[in-house]
Amino acid sequence: MNKIMTIISCLFLLASCENEIPFNIQDNPPKLIVNALLDDDKELNDIVVALTGRDEITSVNEAIVRIYLNGTLKDEISTPAGPDSTNLRGTYQTGLKFSAGDRIKIEVQTKNNKHHAWAEVTVPTPIPVEKIDTATIKKQTPGVQVHISVRGQHLLIMTRKKKLLQNRYGIPGRNRCGKH
Q: CB–CB of 94/77 below 8 Å?
């Protein structure tokens, strides 16, 4: 009986199904990529536009970038910034200023109308700062003294034997509290 079960199990495992899903890279058209990091403190904000590809990403220099602020078209850019040491190809720049609570929509379309992408975000309200403590922090535990100073920009950790322990950030220190 045991041999019969083993044979049936082997036949069952050998007779498995195969479901082949066809994939043709030619049927997978390029997708539009829009990368923007908008900062309300910057004079110019960059929007980088590119297309996915089979082997590499290609920049798009023939696009129209529309920026809506609170539902109103505020900027339309059709010429990318020139490539130099700070700008990549396919970089479009805007000088719009944003405030907390503003709703920003970026819409990008290639000039041949083959590709279209958009994104929308609300500028977050900054978290109010209740208190900034720039004083020296000292913590004493049995056998260890920790001295951290923000203004002096140094970190010192000592044992009772006045031996400096190496901190994981590699900040240089001396074997007594004080500035370097």
A: yes
